[in-house]
Amino acid sequence: MTQPILTDIPMESFLSHIDAVAGAIAKSDWRPDYIVGVGRGGLVPATYLSHAISQPMLSVDLSAQVVGFCDELLDKLVAMALEGSRLLFVDDINDSGRTINQLRAALAGAPADHLRFAVLIDNVSSAAKVEYRATTIDRVVTKDWFVFPWEAVASRASILSDWGEVPERTS
User: Fold this and answer.
1) Which of 24, 27, 41, 85 makes a 20 to 30 Å CA pair with 135?
2) Which CATH number fits domain 6-165: 3.40.50.2000, 3.40.50.2020, 3.20.20.60, 3.40.50.2300?
3) Half-sphere exposure at residue 38, Cβ-oriented, CA atoms within 13 angstroms
4) What is the pLDDT along the chain (171 residues), one digit of tens a residue?
5) What is the DSSP letter of 7?
6) Do 77 and 31 form a contact (C-beta atoms < 8 A)?
7) What region holds the Phosphoribosyltransferase domain (predicted)?
8) How many Å apart are CA 171 and CA 155, to the nearest integer?
9) Per-domain residue ranges for the chain?
10) 55 to each of 34, 85, 136, 146, how far by Cα in Å?
């Protein structure tokens, strides 16, 4: 298996991405009541975005893949949306679309107009669609594995292990 090209996202670019997403939200006619960070990669962007647009942040984590761990939290998020709260889910990248589609399925009982998704990098050929993004890529063309500032502290082996979970994203 060929290893990916690891492309660092500098902190300055990350901050510009946060500004771009915040700007897109400001220009839209929809405002979240809560930012929901999607663990693991969306927690840091959600925290920054929460500060940038002055909205409180919640979190949910599917990345650890612990069966049943998020069920109660997801049920609470559905209940909040049913009660009228608008929830903006934030992740670092919409790559294959697996995480976003998994969340959309888990939140199917919530009113669709109360849920939105934002990412820093949006793969235009993803199986999932998002409402807000800072920048786009096309995985048909761009094969790089992006290393965000919070991931840069990990060892190369750890980064490659994360990539290795679904290597076809960059193949």
Assistant:
1) 85
2) 3.40.50.2020
3) 24
4) 588 899 999 999 999 999 999 999 999 999 999 999 999 999 999 999 999 999 999 999 877 677 777 889 999 999 999 999 999 999 999 999 999 999 999 999 999 999 999 999 999 999 999 999 999 999 999 999 999 999 999 999 999 988 888 766 666
5) E
6) no
7) 14-151
8) 22
9) 6-165
10) 6, 12, 25, 27
For the chain, list the strands marked E by DSSP: 6-8, 34-39, 57-61, 87-94, 115-123, 132-137, 145-147
CA 79 to chain centre: 21
HSE toward the beta carbon, residue 144, CA cutoff 13 A:
13
Contact in structure between 135 and 17 (CB atoms under 8 Å): yes
What are the structure tokens assigned to 162, written together?
């994360």
